[in-house]
Amino acid sequence: MDRRRGALLRRRLRLVILGIVLALISAIMIYPLLWTVSTSFKTNRELFLDPWGLPSNPTLENYIKALERGNMGIAVVNSLIVSLSSIALISIIAPLAAYATSRVEFRLRTLVSNLLIAGFFIAPHAVLVPLLLLLRDLGLIDTHLGLILSYVGWNLPFAILFMKAFFVSVPQTIQDSAKVDGLSNYSIYTKIMLPLALPTILTVAIITFIGVWNDFLFAFVFLRSPSNFTVPINLLNFTTGRYGNDYVAQSAAVIISAIPTIVLYTVFAEKIRRGVSFMAFGR
Predict the structure, then answer these.
(1) Cα gap 168→273, rounded to integer Å
(2) Overall fold of domain 61-281
(3) How many CB atoms lie within 10 A of CB 151?
């Protein structure tokens, strides 16, 4: 009895310690965001006089300045166009490729599957120069289309790998029963597999959106005109240009750039966790 009580007390103590550690980690990660939000409602004078305090007279002037003069409004629209277009194409292509390479028998299936997934293991810096030359020859430098196609090609290996993990987990008996009923591979995909895969497709779309929205490297290399800048590039331009010393306006710009991903992750956090857990552990 004493041993059980001692084991129970030790378990509770470990849980308490774990809770304290997780609370500290959460505070360390959340505090910079809260501080940035607070700073975005201050004036520069108030920031220097009381950097850690709450704003005494909250103002939206910094957000107006960031959206209008700092072009963050245009950048947000550009990022939405690029991100939504990219995930739309990926959500169409990736399930088709994953289904074909996991559930359809054809010659060289293993080779094709490996080639599709091989891009997942290539560093982005290794493809920048070839991709830049290709887009230049196609006349797609400084265009949203060139950036969208680059994001689609870059994110497809991950999306296909993610989707394959789902299709492989579907019992073979479902596909065999559908074939007995006279359905073709295409009909099996559109009528059975695709509806079953919708939650996984949504997870892939969310993860891809967050990655594309926050991407700096491709946008920095392929875009030239301020009118085409996405949020990360415009944020850099905003913080190093004429507003380089306007720290409160910079804070507002940072919050604007973070709002879509924060909202998206907050709404779909459980689906993202389930999707990643399924890919890692198969459940």
Answers:
(1) 20
(2) MetI-like fold (1.10.3720)
(3) 23
What are the start-end ranges of the H helices in the chain?
2-40, 44-49, 61-64, 72-103, 109-118, 128-138, 144-169, 172-180, 185-188, 194-214, 217-222, 231-240, 247-281
Greatest alpha-carbon pair distance for the chain in Å reads: 78
- CA-wise closest residue to 213 among 80, 107, 44, 15: 80
pTM over 0.70: yes
Structure tokens given for 90:
């990926």
Report helix, strand and coil shares of the chain as percent, to nearest 5: 80, 0, 20
Structure-token pair, residue 155: 């994110």
Q: What is the pLDDT of residues 79-118, one digit of tens each?
A: 999 999 999 999 999 999 999 888 888 888 788 888 888 8
In the numeric block, which tokens belong to residue 66? 């960031």
**For residue range 8-27, what is the model confidence (pLDDT) as tens digits?**
777 888 888 988 998 999 88
How far is residue 158 from each of residues 22, 49, 108, 276, measured CA to CA in Å? 30, 48, 21, 12
Q: Find the helix or strand (DSSP H, E) in which 121 lies.
A: none
Amino acid at 140: L
